[in-house]
Each structure stands twice: as C-alpha cells, then as structure tokens.
Write a structure and sequence with these properties.
By secondary structure, the protein is of the alpha/beta class. The protein is 44% helix and 23% strand. The strands form five sheets. Strands 18, 19, 20, 21, 22, 23, 24, 25, 26, 27 and 28 form an eleven-stranded mixed sheet that branches. It has a five-stranded parallel sheet with strand order 2-1-3-4-5, sandwiched between helices.
C-alpha cells in the first residue's frame, strides 16, 4: 500500500478501549496510525482543524451524533476526508442507508481483516485522489510552460484538432511560408502535405484518432503556401489544447542518421540498450499494458556474488565478464524481447510471452545457459549463477515505478534466499509464492539459531542532559546467504512459528556477555534490548533464567533495559504487569517504545511502570516543519518528567531536529545522523 508515513484517523467512538483495539489491529498489520477521538460535533470540528485527519472512523452507536451530521461537518471542512462506518455487523439495508448518507466504506468490527481492508482501501483511494490533483496541477503548469516555450522553439510545431489547425508557432509559419497565424486558422493540415503522401497522412491521422497502435512518425513531402515542397519527417503526439484533445505535429526537415541514433542508445560495454533507452522501452510496455495488452513481463537479472567475483578477477576484467554475461542473456531473447542495462550489473528484460509456462521455461533456459557456461578471462576461467526477479505486467500495475519496485523486491527476495533462484511477482499466485518464501526463510532461521548466524549491532543514544555512561540500542541482524538481513524480513516468520522467545534469549545472552566485558574495561554501559510478546508470555521461564545469568555476570542494576512497543503492551496488559514487576525485582529497567502514538498513552503508565519513554518516531519526520509535533513532544516530556520518567527521541536525522528536541526537554536522542549502527563486540 502506497501511503504517506502515517495515517491520521479521527475516531468517532464512545469507548477509548474500542478505538485502541482498532489502532492495535492496524499497527500489527504494519500501518502507522496518528489517532484522535471525538464524541461531539464540537470535538469533531476541533479535531478536523488540529489533526487534519485522512480518515474518520464512525461508530453509529455514538449517541447524539447522527451520521448525516458527521458527514455534513466533514463536507463543511472543505477537506477530502474518507468517512468509514464501523458497525457490529453488516446487513444490506443498513449499508445501503449509510452509503446514502455519505460514507465511503463500511467495516465490520466483528471481522478485523475486513475492517482493516476497508480502511486501507479508502486510504489508498484518498491518496490516489490526492495524487490525481497533484498531477492535474502539474499538468496545467506544464501546459502553461510548454505554451510559453512553443514560440521560442526552432522546430515547426502545430496543434491539430479534427484535421484543422488550432495553434502553431512562428517557426511553423516561417517554414510553410505564412506571415500570420490567421492565415492558418481552421486550415486543414492536409493542405500542407504533398499529393503523393496525402493518403498515407490521412490514414495515419484516422488511426491515431481511433487509438490504434501505429508508428507515430511519417516521412513525407510537405507543401508550402507557394506550392513548393520539401522532404520532412512528421512526428505525432497526443496533446490537449484549451482542454480539448488534439494532436501535436512536429515537422523536421533534417533527419538524424538512424545508425547514429541506434549507437547512441546502446551501452558501450554490453551492446545492450543503455539505461535511458531501457526505461523508455519499459514506459512503452507500461503504456501498452494500460491499453489492455497482455503477455508482457519485466525481468531483472543479476549475477550472484558480483562484488567478490570482481575482486577475484580484477577490475580490469570486470567489463569483459559483464559483456560475456550480457551476450549470454542476449542469445536467449526472442524476436520481440528487449534487453538493456539498468544498473552497473543489472540487466532488464521485457519478455513477450503468452503463458506463465513460457515465462518459466525462458527463465529456466537462462539459468541453464549461464550456469553451464565457462567464462574465460585471460588466464582465468570462472562460472556464474544468476538471480532473477520479475513482475507480470497488466492493467493493475501499469505504472513504471510500481513495476520496477515489484521486480526489484522479487530480485532481492531471490538473492536473500541464497541466489541462483528466481521469483515472479504475480498477484494470482501470491499465496503459493508466500508459502514457498516462508519455508525458505524458516529454514534459514533455524540454521541461524543452530549455527550462530545472528549478529548484533548497537546504536548510541546521546544524552542531552549530561547523563553519565554509554547508552545504546541493541539491533538484531541475520547473516543470510547474500549478506545481512534486517529483522523486518525474518521476525514475522519467527513469530508465526514460535521462534521469537528463542531468538530473544540469544540476544539477551549476547548483550549480557558484552555488558560484562565492558564492565571489566571500566566502561559503564546501558543496553536497550527489544523483547517480543512471546517472551513475556513465557516469563515463568525467562525471569529465572535472567536472574541466574545476571548474577553470573555480576552486572549493576539498571544496565539492561528491556523494551516493548506501547501497542503490544496494551493488548497484553496483565502479562506485561506481571513480567515488569518481576523484572524490576531483579533490578531491571523497562522502556515503552512508540510512546505517544495511542489515544491515552499516559493512562497506560498507571498500570505499567516504565522507566524510559521512547517517543513515537512519527513525530520526528521533518520535525522543523511541523510545529504541532514539537508541541506534542514538549507535552510528553513535561508529563514524563513530572512522573520521574526519562524520554528518548529515536530516528533523529538532522541537527535542526536535535536542537528542537533539546528545547522540548528530551533526555536522549538517537538516529543515523548522530551515529550509524556499529557491530557489537561480544567477548566472553
């Protein structure tokens, strides 16, 4: 789902707990939420002004707030806001009535997946409407600039509607021997075409008006006002003039050598199309797909372990190897297929196939052709394997950026599973592909646990209030076949298969060992370590183990801070209370992550004793440009300090934000701007 960084939701809801439940569902599904709640029209008006929500989630059971009044309030705000009704159950009559009253969607509270889908769908639609408005504004600005530049162009350019001139520039008038535009106004463009080419020109205009796929250029003889002719090339493009569709026609008298054009579009090393020409071909394929063409697939192909191979053969042989690799790919292409170099060693192929089996057969053929080939580089001979990621092209993904992202993600996934693999993005086969990918990741996870292939990084938290000692966040990575893998790829699968608690214990063991080593060196250090809900649920085993391990390490109290997100703690309040109470008896500290993202975050502190509050990262995005976020952070810090809690701001990415956070009263700041994550040295 393509969205902004945070979805802002106004809950028209009686119960805070019911609203929090939906917030948790969305966050667990990977959607960041900035919430507010209202129960009266006055509160709705204030929230519309202050929050500027993307979506209003309305509960019809709220007393004194009929749906029509809420819809009218939203309409009066002059904002494009999606109104979604959240009902206990869905029945045909009530849904029809609510749509009549102005809702955009209806979700059932008893069906969480359906509710989340409706919210996401309406947010996607909202973003699409916003994007259309931005594009329309950009189009109007582009048309204005194009019109201003039209007369300064040396190329003869005219706009033609239904075969008649409606606009032409000075160069066009001079080329055809007219002194004033009025002489051309409503003159048929066919009058400027030589008799021998008139029929071909007429047929091309007719085909273009019907939207048929034809060549958008025609070599002909053009006729001046004095009836003399000259050879020219007419190039056609669809355009608009004063809001009406028309054709732009450019007459070029001088033609560039086609062989030179072909050479300029080729990469000098591989002989394939260069990046610019390849992207142009992808754009053309996308345009064809948007008009209903089927049977097109974009493939991204990369040699596995390219950097180590180049290091072994030497940079001097890299171009020779790349050229040989590209030649092998080129030999597999069909007559309509197109190949080009998209990056240093990434080849893009637009494959024209009729069936999925044909795509698989082509990919299998390429795998065999590459792996069976011996590449001779002077005195060295090597073999290669390739990873291939692709996306089937259709109307739904007829967008160049989306298509490249889908193919790129498929390529990275194939590489992340060890290389010499292929993966295709195909919504129709998503469930099967996800299952296969999950099996591969599960195998990698189990191997990482048994063979110690996890690794830890630490990122320092800088004290703005001169606190003594070092403070660092512990970050987990996995050593995969193609390099380091971030937790976002493997932790959801670990959670699904019950491996989170085991991974948590490995991280804690390594962190405690590192703390012990730092204590011996006289470096007082505090580590923040993330804890998953699985570990908290298994506290009967985890707490005794922590007690034994910490005593053996002889660590001072407070050196280890366990942390969990606010949204997770809210959904398991009783186990969290019990665990934190037991953890504090062992001298441990606790931190709440993503704090301030809920409706009543400080109310949670009445039940959970958190020593550190890590402010939700959504407040840090472009902080200097958002005074409302600065105000919210200040309020959080003031309340936290009154309750003797320390605050931490994560994801700080610039010096201006750091200064503002100091003024807001934040105790610690953390982010790549201050320090990139560093490998954690663990010495037993």
């Amino acid at each position: 789902m393509k969205t902004d960084s945070v979805i802002k939701i106004l809950f028209v809801e009686n119960s805070v707990e019911d609203a929090e439940q939906i917030i948790t569902l969305l966050r667990n599904a990977g959607t960041a939420v900035r919430p507010a709640r209202a129960t009266t029209l006055e509160q709705i008006h204030a929230a519309l002004e202050e929050l500027g929500p993307d979506l209003v989630l309305y509960n019809p059971s709220v007393s004194g707030l009929p749906l029509r009044s809420v819809a009218q309030q939203i309409e009066a705000s002059s904002r494009d806001i999606a109104l979604v009704a959240c009902v206990p159950k869905v029945d045909e009559q009530s849904v029809a009535d609510m749509f009549q009253e102005g809702v955009h969607g209806v979700g059932a509270r008893s069906q969480p997946k359906q509710l989340i889908t409706v919210i996401r769908r309406e947010f996607d639609a909202l973003n699409a409407r916003r994007q259309v408005r931005r594009l329309e504004a950009a189009l109007r600005e582009s048309e204005r600039r194009c019109d201003a530049l039209l007369d300064s162009s040396n190329d003869p350019i005219a706009y033609v509607h239904e075969g008649m001139h409606v606009r032409a520039n000075r160069s066009y008038l001079d080329t055809f021997g007219y002194t004033d535009y009025d002489d051309l106004l409503c003159l048929p463009v066919l009058d400027l075409i030589g008799p021998s080419d008139a029929e071909a020109f007429k047929n091309l205009l007719r085909a273009l008006s019907k939207g048929e796929k034809v060549e958008h250029r025609l070599e002909l003889h053009a006729r001046r006002a004095d009836s003399s002719t000259f050879p020219a090339t007419a190039e056609f493009a669809h355009a608009t003039f004063e809001g009406e569709p028309c054709l732009q026609i450019v007459f070029r008298r001088q033609q560039i050598d086609p062989f030179l054009v072909e050479q300029l579009q080729r990469d000098t090393v591989t002989g394939l199309f260069n990046r610019a020409r390849t992207l142009e071909c992808i754009d053309n394929a996308v345009a064809a797909a948007s008009e209903g063409r089927k049977g097109q697939t974009l493939l991204l192909i990369e040699p596995d372990n390219w950097a180590p191979i180049v290091n072994n053969v030497g940079l001097g042989k890299a171009d020779e190897l790349l050229a040989a690799f590209a030649h092998r790919v080129n030999t597999q292409l069909g007559q309509e297929d197109i190949a080009g170099l998209l990056a240093e060693h990434t080849i893009g192929v637009i494959l024209h196939t009729d069936t999925d089996d044909a795509i698989r057969a082509w990919i299998d053929g390429l795998h065999k052709a590459i792996s069976s080939e011996i590449f001779d580089l002077g005195s060295q001979s090597i073999t290669l394997t390739v990873s291939i990621g692709g996306s089937l092209l259709g109307e739904k993904n007829a967008n160049t950026d989306m298509l490249l992202n889908q193919a790129g993600q498929a390529l990275r996934s194939a590489q992340g599973q060890g290389g010499n693999r292929n993966e295709l993005h195909d919504p129709a086969a998503r469930e099967k592909a996800d299952a296969e990918r999950e099996r591969n990741w599960l195998s990698l996870l189990r191997r990482a646990l048994t063979q110690n292939e996890f690794m830890l990084y630490h990122q320092q938290s800088i004290s703005l209030q001169d606190a003594e000692g070092d403070y660092s966040e512990i970050l987990l990575r996995m050593n995969g076949p193609q390099g380091e893998v971030s937790p976002g790829f493997f932790m959801p699968i670990a959670e699904k298969h019950g491996l989170n608690a085991e991974i948590d214990r490995w991280v804690l063991s390594q962190a405690i060992t590192a703390l012990k080593a730092r204590d011996r060196l006289g470096v007082p250090t505090t580590f923040f370590v993330k804890l998953t809900p699985d570990s908290m649920q298994q506290q009967a085993n985890l707490l005794p183990w922590l007690d034994r391990t910490l005593k053996q390490a002889s660590l001072k109290h407070g050196r280890l801070v366990l942390e969990m997100t606010e949204s997770k703690v809210v959904t398991m309040l009783r186990p969290a209370q019990e665990f934190i109470t037991g953890w504090k008896k062992l001298g441990g500290y606790f931190a709440l992550e993503q704090f301030g993202s809920g409706l009543n975050s400080f109310q949670l502190l009445n039940h959970i004793h958190a020593d550190y509050l890590k402010i939700d990262r959504s407040f840090m995005a472009e902080l200097p440009q958002h005074p409302e976020n600065q105000k919210k952070i200040t309020e959080i810090c003031q309340q936290a300090h009154e309750m003797k809690r320390l605050t931490i701001a994560e994801w700080v990415e610039d010096a201006a934000s750091t200064s503002l956070l100091f003024a807001c009263g934040v105790d610690f700041v953390q982010g790549n701007f201050l320090q990139e994550p560093q490998p954690l040295a663990v010495n037993g």
